[in-house]
From TrEMBL, chain B:
A GO term for molecular function: transmembrane transporter activity
Family: Belongs to the binding-protein-dependent transport system permease family. HisMQ subfamily.
One Pfam family here: BPD_transp_1
Listed InterPro entries: AA_ABC_transptr_permease_3TM (IPR010065), ArtM/GltK/GlnP/TcyL/YhdX-like (IPR043429), MetI-like (IPR000515), MetI-like_sf (IPR035906)
Major location (coarse): membrane
Domain named ABC transmembrane type-1: residues: 16-205
Species of provenance: Azospirillum cavernae
Keywords linked to the UniProt accession: Cell membrane, Membrane, Transmembrane, Transmembrane helix, Transport
Domain of life the protein comes from: Bacteria
SUPFAM superfamilies: MetI-like
GO biological process: amino acid transport
Protein name per Swiss-Prot or TrEMBL: Amino acid ABC transporter permease
Membrane-protein topology: Multi-pass membrane protein
Compartments where found: Cell inner membrane; Cell membrane
Amino acid sequence: MSSTLSSPLSPVVSLSNVHKSFGALKVLDGVSFDVGVGEVAAIIGQSGSGKSTALRCINALETIQQGTIQVCGHAIHDPALDRRALRRDVGIVFQSYNLFPHLTVEQNIMLAPTCVKALSKGEARDLAREVLSHVGLEAKADQYPEQLSGGQQQRVAIARSLAMRPKLMLFDEVTSALDPQLTGEVLKVMETLAREGMTMILVTHEMAFARKVASKVVYMHQGRVWETGTGAMLDDPQTPELRAFIGNGL
Amino acid sequence: MQSFGLIHVEFLAWAALWTVGLSLIAFVGGGLLGFAVALARVSGSLAVRAAAIVYIQIVQGTPLLILLFLIYFGVAVAGFSGVPAILAAGAGLTVYSSGFLAEIWRGCIQSVPKTQWEAAECLALTRWQRMTRVILPQALRMATAPTVGFLVQIVKNTSLASVVGFVELSQAGKLINNSIFEPFTIFVTVALFYFALCFPLSTWSRSLERKLNVSRR
């Protein structure tokens, strides 16, 4: 039922028997999976299946009660984890964008490189222009987040993460708040990143995108990894739960 | 006996300057202390947070009059007799303002969405950088209107400084009344002075509130 695909290269992310509860509510019930270098892993499942929590655990935004998580050489389960070192290696994009409303697009992107990596203003500005052109928004550098559409804000959020040159990018339902057209422009950016070899884990409801772009699909159900496989697994579900989920989802 | 005239108005105007001066001391001193307490109030350390809560509760739970007495006589008990009235009054009002400003600003800091903290944390910013670069600039916007509003309270409460012998607007009114006994005329004039000081502040506060509501920037 919960088979773990072995990745060809040494894993960037490795979850092993991860347990997590919010009070009496068991959210992750022995979750294990690996993601290798350059892989694009899509975590799918119903609301409440634990997929977002799993992603947040990978970035140490939630603490786990049992099991181990290794991310880019950091032991997430270790109480002595250096969170800032972890966050230099891992970028995350949220469903609600979470741009800083008091800063322009460019300032949003420049903040972390100047604060954390001690880049000069000039270097950071060049970097901001570069990542903005990557997401097709160099013309918006001097605007404030509220002046942008949701899709544009989300692309800025992606650019802001990219500016830290992460080894791994996490995407937490990044298109769930967007209409289909805006969803398309964000997915296009993500597809480009995937093609360029970025290691990515995305929690998503976009089945077509998962099938097309993901090298690994992890179907979660009731806090467990129910089924894993390649994108093709969505065409040939092995469990009745995944069959029902896809039936409802498409 | 002399009747109420220009000379008295001049005396009141001079005393009003002391009211303004004392208000400024209270606002600057209370602002600095209150800002430190507000930061302590949202600190990551439970002990620091608890200490800040206790401080705020004590200050807010004590009448300003008693605070002023405590400081004025407390300092004398500690062996420093003859404390200048402005120091005692300034210290008392500073403590008083810090307790309230800390709580106003704590509310503003905590009303910045938690997701902003999270986003800043995920960009590897230190706790201090998150606070100064992301949270405080947003909290500041929200804090402006209520802070200016509280300034009105400070101005009015400086009248209590008369109990430690400080001659500000209210005490000046009392002094004049002792000599010419025209309480109604005198205290209406005193009230007009207070109004002239406070009205611009509350108007400013209201316009700030309107402006900041229109745009989040």
